[in-house]
Amino acid sequence: MMRPLRYAMVGGGRDAFIGGVHRQAMALDGRMQLVAGALSSDPDKARASGRDLHLPDDRNHGRWQDLLDDELRRPPDQRIDFVCIVTPNHVHYPVALAFAEAGIHVVCDKPLTHTSVEAQALVRASGAAGTVFGVTYNYTGYPMVRQAREMVRSGAIGEVRKVVVEYHQGWLATQVERGGNKQADWRTDPARSGLAGAIGDIGSHAENLVATVTGLEIEALCADLTAFVPGRRLDDDGNLLLRYRNGARGVLMTSQVAAGCENDLSLRVHGTLGSLAWRQEEPNLLLHAPIDGPRRVLTRGSPWLCDAARRATRLPAGHPEAFLEAFANVYLGVAEGIRAAQAGRAPLPGEADYPTVHDGARGVRFIEKTVESAASAAKWTDWD
Amino acid sequence: MMRPLRYAMVGGGRDAFIGGVHRQAMALDGRMQLVAGALSSDPDKARASGRDLHLPDDRNHGRWQDLLDDELRRPPDQRIDFVCIVTPNHVHYPVALAFAEAGIHVVCDKPLTHTSVEAQALVRASGAAGTVFGVTYNYTGYPMVRQAREMVRSGAIGEVRKVVVEYHQGWLATQVERGGNKQADWRTDPARSGLAGAIGDIGSHAENLVATVTGLEIEALCADLTAFVPGRRLDDDGNLLLRYRNGARGVLMTSQVAAGCENDLSLRVHGTLGSLAWRQEEPNLLLHAPIDGPRRVLTRGSPWLCDAARRATRLPAGHPEAFLEAFANVYLGVAEGIRAAQAGRAPLPGEADYPTVHDGARGVRFIEKTVESAASAAKWTDWD
Amino acid sequence: MMRPLRYAMVGGGRDAFIGGVHRQAMALDGRMQLVAGALSSDPDKARASGRDLHLPDDRNHGRWQDLLDDELRRPPDQRIDFVCIVTPNHVHYPVALAFAEAGIHVVCDKPLTHTSVEAQALVRASGAAGTVFGVTYNYTGYPMVRQAREMVRSGAIGEVRKVVVEYHQGWLATQVERGGNKQADWRTDPARSGLAGAIGDIGSHAENLVATVTGLEIEALCADLTAFVPGRRLDDDGNLLLRYRNGARGVLMTSQVAAGCENDLSLRVHGTLGSLAWRQEEPNLLLHAPIDGPRRVLTRGSPWLCDAARRATRLPAGHPEAFLEAFANVYLGVAEGIRAAQAGRAPLPGEADYPTVHDGARGVRFIEKTVESAASAAKWTDWD
Amino acid sequence: MMRPLRYAMVGGGRDAFIGGVHRQAMALDGRMQLVAGALSSDPDKARASGRDLHLPDDRNHGRWQDLLDDELRRPPDQRIDFVCIVTPNHVHYPVALAFAEAGIHVVCDKPLTHTSVEAQALVRASGAAGTVFGVTYNYTGYPMVRQAREMVRSGAIGEVRKVVVEYHQGWLATQVERGGNKQADWRTDPARSGLAGAIGDIGSHAENLVATVTGLEIEALCADLTAFVPGRRLDDDGNLLLRYRNGARGVLMTSQVAAGCENDLSLRVHGTLGSLAWRQEEPNLLLHAPIDGPRRVLTRGSPWLCDAARRATRLPAGHPEAFLEAFANVYLGVAEGIRAAQAGRAPLPGEADYPTVHDGARGVRFIEKTVESAASAAKWTDWD
Description:
Chain A is an alpha/beta fold. Chain A contains twelve helices and 14 strands. In chain A, α1 packs across α11, α5 runs antiparallel to α12 and α9 packs across α12.
């Protein structure tokens, strides 16, 4: 087993939620090691957070710029292998751009940036530097999502006619942003969250899930966005009709005010030869209804799954894996990409299975187009 | 127990599907008795079908007009109590109008008519005659649908914010209408099916289910209809965004080409205080997710259900009831309405729980507006 | 369609529960018609109940003996085709014996009799008369139970190694027999219920379900019976280990004090090549887990089911059928048997699919052996 | 955050399965660090395995005795905090005894030992040394198991009347031990596995799950054990009837030849006021059926769960946690126990929630008594 990759984290300090999830995901397989950080935009909190995580003082920074400067001063063989950016959305862009331009591999949370202009700048920067740039659309790391992708791509359900994707949560059903909920606070603030609320926060996962599994490209969309909770400035519920370039139709639903729902992301794909259904809250199952025989329940860990699903599996069938393992799988893909880049070679087939900066940029465009459609009088909005 | 109501059936002869279902539903509780019929538009087939059902010769007619004439000739105490119309869609209107104008109670299948003009004529005719006019939106007969209605109407989930209703079938995923499937043949023929395909056939059930459970009124809708199967002239897939007058948003999905799906009608209602979910293929359950406590699974037959749900139940909890029983419940409601009318009184509270000609007319308008929206350049179409 | 079969009912009057279920099941398909009855052991209640059901006075009897006498006096072409016995258990035997000896076809509820001696007398009587004798183990009428039977018998899951059958209810979890619950009252009274409580009432269904589906024969059993509710004289909970003649092992569990359970009868069969699972509360599904591929969910109404399952189906897939339809299927099988007998021929292959007096007698022996095992010091009790 | 605890591992080298699972579980929360090992009984493989895991050469041993000697030579502040024993069953005892007698905290896999005599020696040794001794009954680490425990113990379902626990797997349905399956090889060998096969390997988990959740004590048991696969010397299927000291009854089923089953451990507890059901393959749910209201589905991460369940949770509701997280929870409990011991204090309320050597010893007795019952002529075997 090779030495673990060294990473620095920007964001994810005390009181943050998702940074700890990223760290647990990276710890799971023992292949990545946190060595440096600038864990908060507040320098004091940043350093206190770094001490919590046993970071050495000289790599525990109050500002991300100091982290970058410090890393660049170190000899390459002691430098971090990549940076992991888990700040609120508005900070993604400057940090990611600076590290990418400095030739450091980047993993950034989603949605990637506030604007397509920014996203394209990141595409160019990482392209110019030849570096890996992963975006943590973590749900793509589930083995059964990869199985679905393989089945759709290989024609197991024929040509896709209809896609239904939904992502329903209920945690913003009341005005929790006024009650000190830090996650709710920045997500409902346009300055930090961006153009969109629920569509950006979770709708972007839904868009990515469809694109990852089916490869379909959106031709036009028609959106209805609503802010239900009084005083809320960004959408907390959104519904879209979609037309794909192959003629398929889609429905994308998202809500953060669906009271009683937890994290109900699901995907259904209907093709000429059958249908697939997957649900994040029961992630070890993939339902396959062929047109000409009984429904099948594919389970993670089974020997008859595709290579990509089996590679993304640690435990035997019936020993469930879940959210953290899926998250970790995205990181394992990134790690393979970095290993290959460090070895000066392209990834082998099946290696480096992770969402890239291109996925991130498409997600930003999705958010922009959705907001444009919802705001326009003529509802159907072309993608191009 | 009072004598069974006597009914005549128009349509529903040999090779028909739904007529037999209506007859089984009516037989279940022993409260209705088939005494006359004009069971097909083909007089020979009509009479042969009547003989199959042991109809006496003098009430076994080749044409529905003969049936009507014959009944009117009989003394009132020997006449049918109501007529049941289960023909293809295009025949509903003339038959229903003639019987209603003759002062005979009517039960008619859905969608009620091809046009709102016709539907309004039926509203007027039955109104003028003071007769009962039921429309067999059979899914409203499920006890747990009635429980959902009670819970929404009584505020158990607060103010409704979002409704998701879907009806996915797969039986038209291939060109079965070319292969001798009689059900597919007329449903895909504009002359017999009307303006719409799937939206008329099953989308109308979805519309009715929402209206029945929530009472919400559509303010505007935005529809995308598609005919996927080559050569098909009517939509076999449709998706709508909906805005309701109270500010709620909705998504209505329907398909008859969702390969591998059977009869997957489901409803979710999200309110400020919780959510409800019901699925026709598991009709004995109603899921209730309150905002402030664990999810609850309400089961048919439980003592804590509302009166309307308990009245619609024959068997104890755990002894499942299903499609036919729900269908029968609609007829029991119609029967109560007829009994009350015959007694010259209004139905008592809780009695006569069935979809009326007004539901039928609203359903026709829904179809028209959906087709209008799908065909228009400006997609959002106002209801009024 | 032939004329409906005429039947008389013994038991099933006002306040009874299961009689009405039998009548609804028989009404469903329009093939059986109630023409006579002795609907209660209380003559006045019997006649009042018959009037409720519109029985003519001359066939509405106060005593079952009068019913039998009256029928025998009628010319054969006006006589009932069969009698349906739905009394409490202790009355089954004398009524069934009398009618069978009189050469009248019989349908009797389960458990058949209080003792094997009585059961064997019924076997002999109906054998001597050459009459049909059906026992309403109604759960065998479910299409997916018949599909399971076909799959096990044809080797789809290989040789059976293990069977787990359970039947859990909760309605007797408290002392309801003291509170006026008529169903609870006689079921907990040894004089009317027989040797056993839950084991007789519902354990016998479980035994029959295993035998029907697998054909396995019990070699020995080891039982533990308990009366949990204070003051109860018959078991309200029972658990058995089973050994079958082919070497398979079994577990049979039953309870009527499993608080919160409704009517949770389920069967799992594990063979060398796969497993099957069926659950009465979701009766339209049969789960099949083959050893060498993904799990399959077989659904009622699918074209790939066996003949017996398809014959037992009225509605298309996705239009659920349930308890009453299954019950009706048993009666349809009986009717085919009677038609064949009346025509002086053996039933055709696939016809006359119903549990017979032999099933009933085996069920009585099961109850006796279970009680014997539970009472003995040496627990394993041989069947023979 | 305190420094991670240092641990050594015995067993768990190349080709082993469960050792890696233990390491991942311990890595998850960053609170334990592997620093030493004797990872195989084959010294060369042991050292190669240690190099895979980046163990320093001086703490990478070929024999567990060398590991122990080396640790004892080190100053206490550099010594391991605990040893983790993940060898095949027959090696547990000597290793655990040696480390416990040396005053080192121990975590050992289950079943603890081959005999009760050995198990009691471990109880005494760890008691004498005052050290922590955890046994990795990992399923007790699931939050919803802890919720079930709290609900049963606090009386939410009243007095327990019946327990049904089952653990069905299918991976030994064929003679895989002859085909090079290392896991199957030692588990089916009496010399390495012990007295029992499936009952020891997975039945012990089932026994522990009941004891953990309910606290019920077995009074007597009646077992039927079978080796279905030709040539197999240990049971691969077992079924037990149980009587508990409080009068409750139980059924325990286990199989490793239930073809098509994966890792189907489930528990149902029926009390006077309601029932609970939990299933390992859907571990984020706990079903609660109260006697007097609708069923409830409790979900991990909800604010209304008990403290113990919430402490065992990392992610919000709807972000599923699974097998590894549950495993990690057991280790977190052990870690709290060790921290407390190192601080010379008793654990605080709610701390140190893990199965101990007493659970392990009871599990060994369960195996012995089960085998005794299955082998005896008089089947019911008293626990004492």
